[in-house]
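note to self: dont lose this again. the chain is below, predicted strucutre after it. 209 aa total, dont forget to put it in the shared folder this time
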Amino acid sequence: MTTYGTILIPVPLEQAAPVLREVCAAGYATPAGPGFCLAHPDRFVGGNGVFALAGPISAELGVPVLAAFQYDGDRLELEVWRDGVRAHRYDSWPDRDDESVGDVPSGADPAAFLDFAAGPVDSHRLASALADTPIDVEDMDVDGEPGYVWAQALHWDVLCALGHPDEVIRRAQRDHCHMRAAPQVVAEVLGSAELVVLGAADRAADRPA
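---
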């Protein structure tokens, strides 16, 4: 499954773009509905991962930001940053490398994510998702194990519970790698002409994927 990292920012893209251009060495930024935007940094550039950038972005913009990193369909990590300081961390599989420990998520506090609501919050779905307890049968492990089959389904449910529409959630699950080969094509697919190139991402687009 695809690995991706994005940062959800509760300000419009036109307001966030100057800061993102300054802070992010390479990547893209996209609108994410009224009052929100997303940063898609190039995680292969040193010091340019979502968790490294979330602090400076939150400090410069003066708003909390939500950094998400989903690894290979297995693990979702979420960090809330405020004023340059990490305020909360969620990990769907904190003991991934220790098979003797149960797969209980850490940081499953729904209240920590309410600043990122784009509409009415589905409190039950949010709490269930963070607890790694899918509501929808299709998201459950087919082998009968508890939890989500794929971490991106967990991420989807978190954002859905916070009131974000499907097209924004799809965008929040797009890594910079999805965009760098043909960013203008991606902008058209996303239904937006507002895809912003950050730093060296324009030159990265010329390199083979």
